[in-house]
Amino acid sequence: MGHFNVHYHEILHFSNWYWVLAASYLLGSIPWGLLISKVFLGIDPRTLGSGNIGMTNVMRTGGKWPGLATFVLDFGKGTLAVWVTLNVLDAPGILGLMVGFVVVFGHTRSVFLKFKGGKGVATNFGVWLALDWRVCVGILAIWAGLFFWKRISSLSALGSLTLLPAVTFIFIGFEDKLYLATILSLYLILLHRTNIVRLVTGQESKLKSKSEGSHADE
Questions:
Q1: What's the pLDDT score for residue 159?
Q2: How far is CA 156 from CA 6, 80, 86, 209, in A?
Q3: What is the pLDDT of residues 28-54, one digit of tens each?
Q4: In the prediction, which pLDDT does 1 show?
Q5: Which one in 31, 39, 101, 168 has a CA-CA gap of 20 to 30 Å to 182?
Q6: pTM
Q7: Is the separation of the CB atoms in 78 and 135 below 8 Å?
Q8: What is the mean predicted confidence (pLDDT) over 11-35?
Q9: 217 near 207, Cβ under 8 Å?
Q10: Domains of the chain, residue spans
Q11: DSSP string over 66-127
């Protein structure tokens, strides 16, 4: 309990910590996939494909470049939120970890989308780039390896999320970041439960061109 009490007092002694969390949530809530699709393509990804707003469904319904742009921007908001908190605001490390969760939560439960959103995979990657680049590279490598093997985006995401705590432990050990890794892993895997069912039943689709309908993982 003493360890958590220390963190509790660290947060309380950082002025405006609640505004930092609120801003991080709002940043995470920006639905880049929806904005890119509507502004540049004139479509709403929520009404096409899987109905999700993440990279995979945007790529399937709008093409490769809109999908990649969605990934970069969703990734970037995770990195930006944590990096600014730790390096610009010079906040305590525990607040940076809280921001890491909140920005991902904002993506998955966006205030701008009636508290619906994506699956948080790209934003999670971005958070870890700011927290520890080695963990980010590790889970990205797992995602890429599984994707090039099976071409199923949800399987790649679930593999990287499942191994996130292990990768964090390998590079960092038993530190507070391991708690965040475990929480994000469990939370985001839970959001993929419909994908898990489709994978188990052999109904999950591979990533295909925008002219071919299939399920998305984000």
A1: 97
A2: 37, 24, 29, 18
A3: 999 999 999 999 999 999 998 888 899
A4: 54
A5: 31
A6: 0.91
A7: no
A8: 93
A9: no
A10: 2-201
A11: HHHHHHHHHHHHHHHHHHIIIIIS---HHHHHHHHHHHHHHHHSBGGGTTB----HHHHHHH
